Amino acid sequence: MVYPLSDSQLASHVTLHQLQVFEVAARHGSYTRAAEELFLTQPTVSMQIKHLTKSVGMQLFEQVGKRLFLTQAGQELFHTCQEIFGRISQFEMSVADLKGLKQGYLKVTVVTTAKYVIPRLLGPFCQRYPGVEIALKVTNHSGVLERLAENKDDLYILSKVPDEPDVKAYPFLPNPLVVLANHEHPLVGEKNIPIQKLADQPFITRESGSGTRGYIQQLFDEHKISPTIKIELSSNEAIKQAIAGGLGISVLSKHTISLEGASGQIAVLDVQHFPIPCHWYVIHLAGKQLSVVAQAFLEYLQTEGKELAESTTW
Ligand code: PGA
Prior knowledge:
The protein is α/β, with parallel strands linked by helices. The chain has helices at residues 9-13, 16-28, 31-38, 42-56, 72-98, 118-128, 141-149, 211-222, 236-244, 292-302, 304-312; strands at residues 61-64, 67-70, 104-111, 132-139, 155-158, 167-174, 177-182, 202-205, 228-232, 250-253, 266-269, 279-285.
């Protein structure tokens, strides 16, 4: 027998906020990470889940060692929450669509190299649609894939399109990877430097999980080169500073030097097999129904945004 919603015992005791807290805690398997994501304190998360557990009348989590696992009731509730929040976000989208592009929310996550281009392209888009609010997240390749798997954003920009999950990918801009050295480095000015010479140089590398690092590793493996790693840094800007400080050479996206060019303290070396010809793609989950705002931004990136980027880089 199906009761009207208003007759449901649970619906009158459980709040959407409790379900939201539970969903995030279940996704992370951690109250602490849920508190971080929701900008709440850990005791608040714990209290909300306690109330929810009481209303459900069964344990939702079980603790084994330091890890939290969902009980069977917890798993059922987790799936229910995903359906509820999926429906709510569809409803939000329909309302935003009804209001057209006058207002809306756009969530975009890009790899660290794209942060040298995307923020600049947001200006004209936001001027055209002043009611649109944009959240831009910058992380490395693995970070983008994690957010994609959790369906956290509308659009993503990265170089290597994943095989899984199923995505739609739109080519965006070239993202060549170049060898960078201090402007006083002895190899500056040399032509067609054999790639093997890089093995003797102190090398500054990005962190594991970085797409840039993946491409370099692949090229070095093809040429059987083991670079002498001097230091690992997870920021392109920190790597540029380290190069300027004479710590070593590195390979980064050419976009990372687009503002200052190669005229400052950093020079591009002319090494065989470089630049590595990467290309950025705008992607979204294949099954995702894009909102009007996300669709408009995707079209903007493929047309005017792309032209603007091409005219202002290098
Ligand atoms: P990343 O960027 O090094 O910041 O992960 C890689 C990419 O261009 O996809």
